[in-house]
Design a protein that fits this description.
By secondary structure, the chain is of the alpha/beta class. It has 13 helices and 23 strands. The strands form seven sheets. The chain has a five-stranded parallel sheet. Helix 8 runs parallel beside helix 9.
Length: about 450
């Protein structure tokens, strides 16, 4: 993909970032590290709040130039959305805000223990001073050390680059002659979604095999029963073969094929595949922050926080999303994108409250249900009604896509993604209404910005 030339405001942000973003006379600075759901939405919420003594400088630091709306990665593979729906540039998302964006990898965090203020080192020559820090670096794929060959031969599905690589590999398989086989390691929601997406892409090939390797006795064992049953039914429809209690032991390459050694029912088997996709082993990305930070972490590397999302022992440092941890007796939830979305509101408010002498609010998670894609034009939605009400098929797919339009981080992005959905799914009427929807979203965004000015 050819990089696009950056002009205008984006150039100014980069120039300002190189001179130490957020360091302006007389104004406090808030630095948010990590541009995933939790980090980006915290920064946007902070930018939208009313500040009695003037808005502080808000700096968002992220290694990549694009925000990744991870739930839509599977839709991108199946051709149901384009690259700017799933991975818009921060340049575009932050265009109408006062947030500064600094692209680069964090090499160190220096923190004054007495004041909580500090300096973030980004890349080789950028320093970002801060009065308040938010750590929202998310999770990244960690291949198990005890599985030789997995890191070298398996392809993860977690980042923007992973998504493009898998897309190209599937296109290559589609164009090949002769039988092909794709194995997906991981029987959780991510593994099932990816297996269904791959099967949809290869559906026109009768000689293609998609295999799901689940280490548990049942796929998606922690999901509601209706969710599991919908997933099993669709995998059967798509021809996805499921191997339960299959644990990958090692991977090697022989004559261009991946030889996957697995333990199945206590016996070792070897499966020959053309492509091995990896969806297990997600771990907090705090290890990528550099070696100088001293935040307390649990055994998995998640930063310990109190009920207000403040890092233990640090009143000016907050953490949320996959990078954070609260004791189960405080918040007994599993880290998901839905959790990070809700935490961002609490995190932004508590930073505002701490800077304005107001009372902080403890985080309380409200479960809103579960959604997953099950291949092209089908999905499952389970609502928390009674023991769980599950909707699947085309209606669930449409409901999921509408929900993700609403969940886009900015009004302008909602308009862009909503326009694409209307134009693809709404026929001639959708093609006519799509541009109008995007225009309305843009004008609404301008109005809200002017009203807060």
């Amino acid at each position: 993909m050819r990089p696009r030339q950056r002009t205008g405001r984006w150039q100014r942000l980069q120039c300002r970032a190189a001179k130490a973003p957020g360091h302006k006379r007389g104004k406090e600075s808030i630095c948010v590290v990590g541009g995933g759901f939790g980090g980006l939405l915290t920064a946007l919420k902070l930018d939208s709040l009313l500040w009695p003594d003037g808005k502080p400088n808000i700096v968002l630091v992220n290694r990549e130039e694009r925000f990744l709306f991870k739930p839509l990665m599977y839709d991108y593979l199946t051709g149901e959305c384009d690259v700017n729906d799933v991975a818009p540039r921060f340049e575009d998302l932050l265009e109408s805000t006062s947030i500064e964006f600094c692209q680069g990898e964090v090499s160190s965090i220096e923190l004054q223990q007495t004041t909580g203020k500090g300096v973030l080192s980004v890349g080789r020559d950028q320093s970002v001073p801060f009065d308040h820090l938010v750590v929202a670096v998310g999770a990244s794929t960690r291949f198990p050390l005890g599985v030789p060959g997995a890191r070298e031969l398996a392809v993860p599905f977690s980042t923007f680059e992973d998504m493009l690589q898998v897309e190209n590999l599937l296109k290559d398989l589609e164009g090949r002659s002769g039988p092909c086989k794709v194995a997906v390691a991981g029987g959780g929601v991510a593994g099932v979604e990816l297996a269904c997406a791959v099967a949809s892409c290869l559906k026109n090939r009768s000689d293609a095999t998609v295999l799901l390797l689940s280490g548990s006795t049942e796929v998606m064992e922690k999901c509601p029963a209706g969710h599991r049953e919908a997933a099993k039914a669709e995998m059967k429809e798509l021809g996805v073969e499921v191997l339960d209690t299959a644990r990958v032991l090692s991977v090697e390459e022989v004559e261009g094929q991946k030889q996957v050694h697995i333990s199945l029912g206590g016996e070792e088997r070897v499966i020959a595949t053309d492509l091995l996709l990896w969806t297990v082993g997600q771990a907090p990305a705090t290890a990528d922050l550099g070696g100088s930070y001293v935040f307390p972490v649990n055994e998995k590397g998640s930063i310990k926080t109190d009920p207000y999302l403040q890092v233990e022992g640090q009143s000016n440092v907050f953490a949320l999303g996959d990078a954070s941890f609260q004791a189960p007796e405080v918040s007994p939830y599993v880290a998901t994108a839905q959790v990070a979305l809700q935490q961002s509101d609490f995190c932004a408010y508590n930073i505002w409250a701490s800077m304005n002498g107001r009372k902080l609010v403890p985080f309380r998670y409200m479960h809103l249900g579960e959604m997953m894609t099950l291949g092209r034009s089908t999905a499952a939605i389970t609502l928390p009604l009674g023991s769980g009400f599950t909707l699947d098929g085309i209606p669930a797919s449409l409901g999921r896509r509408i929900a993700y339009v609403i969940r886009q981080p900015t009004l302008q992005q909602q308009g862009r993604v909503g326009r694409g959905l209307l134009e693809r799914e709404g026929g001639e009427a959708g093609k006519a209404l799509g541009p109008l929807l995007q225009l309305l979203a843009t004008e609404a965004d301008k109005f809200l910005r002017q009203s807060r000015a």
